[in-house]
Amino acid sequence: MTPTELPAPPAPATAPPLAADDAANVLDVRRVELMYGAARALRGVSIGAWPGRITCLLGRNGVGKTSLLRAIMGIHDISAGDIVWNGASLGRMAPYQRAALGIGFVPQGREIFPLLTVRENLESGYAVVKRGERNIPDYVFELFPVLKEMMRRRGGDLSGGQQQQLAIGRALVTRPKLLVLDEPTEGIQPSIIKDIGRAIVFLKEKMGLAILLVEQYLDFARELADTVAIMDRGSIVFSGSAQDLDTADARRHLTV
């Protein structure tokens, strides 16, 4: 099937109506297009994230998942469509401005500063925080105790799993209302995957964050997600609840 023969994308993943107090801090991606030169990376993508809920985006390698997250963060400019946060279009707002609005990002590959200490890596999140709030929240160390034990260690000396916890902790220092995570389980040992899963559930249930999670580990996604969407060739080709991941339609989009 050629790209021009792809079926029309399904309706965007939806959540139940929000209570009046929860109407803010909603991410609404509306038919976004993204080009890399002449190559079309995103094709009319629509997806959402809501307070106290986890939206999980799945798909094979190279289908546009990371491109979508980078568009949401303002790292790549979109060519059509809109990205709306808290009822307002983000337009061409810079990444640091989006972070200041409450959008936290944990990139694929972690991208911590290897020559800075754990403390300095965490404190790098202060850049978008009001001066009176420039501290590391206690719950960061409650979620990831190893970070408190290694505050003076350089980031590059940590294991891959510890660096992933550091990357999540750094994002949490910015006091996000929306947390965007790009494959946080990639290359991580099972014990730390469980720790990360528990942290994500805490952030959803206790902190009320909206969470957009890109993942390839199907069991991890099924366990955590409220809403799932599957991407293929730059388009959303499936959306539904986490239970729908076991259907034949969902599986055929995820099979290599």
Explain how this protein is built:
The protein has one domain (10-254): P-loop containing nucleotide triphosphate hydrolases (Rossmann fold). It is built from nine helices and ten strands. It has 256 residues and is an alpha/beta fold.
| Overall residue-averaged pLDDT value | 89
CATH topology: Rossmann fold
CATH superfamily: P-loop containing nucleotide triphosphate hydrolases
The assigned CATH architecture is 3-Layer(aba) Sandwich
Count of the domains:
1
Can you summarize the main beta sheet?
6 strands, mixed
Taken in chain order, the helices and strands follow as EEEHEEHEHHHHEHEHEEH
Shape: globular
Query: Got a strand count?
Result: 10
Q: Compute the CA-based radius of gyration.
A: 18 Å
Low-confidence stretches: 1-22
Identify the strand order in the major beta sheet: 6-7-8-3-9-10
